Amino acid sequence: MRLLIALGGNAIKQGHEEGSTAEQFENCKVTTRLIAQVVKKMSPEDRLAITHGNGPQAGNLLVQQELGKAKVPAQSMDVVGAMTQGQIGYMLQQTLMNYLTDLGVNVPVCAVVNQVLVTKDDPEFFGDTASKPVGNFFTEEEAQELKLEHPEYIVKKVKPNTERAWRRTVPSPDPVKNSESEAIKRMVDAGIIVIASGGGGIPVIKDDAGHYAGVEAVIDKDLAGERLAEVIDADEFLILTDVEVAKLDYGKPSEKPIHKMTLTEAKKYLEEGHFLAGSMGPKVKACIRFVEKGGKRAVITSLDKAVAALAGETGTHIVRK
User: Fold this and answer.
1) 135 included as an active-site residue
2) Is 283 a catalytic residue?
3) pTM greater than the 0.70 cutoff
4) Which one of 56, 60, 88, 320 has the fewest CB atoms closer than 10 angstroms to its CB?
5) Following CA atoms 305, 307, 310, 312 in sequence, which dihedral angle do they give, to the nearest 10 degrees?
6) What pLDDT shows up at residue 279?
7) Is 221 in the active site?
């Protein structure tokens, strides 16, 4: 079996936390303890790659850039993405290595700084279509204050029926290809657990000469994760988030969990608007793409249910039919 695990932002920073180094390391320990249990159950022939979000970290680092620009130059959004990719990759790499050592599992782990190709004419770069939430959640009043202070920001409501439902959003272009795919594939084939495409990867475009250049954006990590799953020839794609199962009619009185969807059903529900953009929507879209590309199964569940979901006991499962 070849498995791609995509970790949500809650695996590194909880919504109520400040995001200190100590807090994020503790969250990574909880996360990698569970991943280590998955690895222990794998056979020597099985392969694993991991990706992760960076929304809270990128948002906070962008605030630091803004506040510190009077003393030091602010860094561009692609560089911020690279910085958070290195930060989170380091934390996950170290804590996973430690737990594997404790379990007596001798498998190397390597986090890579990874670029992901997008197109410069992606709709996300135009108007107010930017859909990727970054940084902290705000009340409507706080969101209005943020918009007054930074008119250039796009601020949107990203959750229903909750007070702190507003976040800054930035362009989230559709990932086309993993730029370091050959290197990642070689490492995974060799039995290395690779952490890549962190935060959706560093967004880059390519010119006619084949040269790369970074762009101001944050790619959705689940959609980029699906591209990474293609690179490693994954059989299964596990998306870990803050809910055990996806919901139909989310946020409405008729809300209900959905435990299994065929490709046809998943496309229908996505088109009907059951899954919010910037939240569950990209996750379901990524799962659809994965199964369409030949993946056997995609699963969406919460971090603490990862092992049970892989065993088929919980989660939302998307299959061909």
Assistant:
1) no
2) yes
3) yes
4) 320
5) -70
6) 83
7) yes
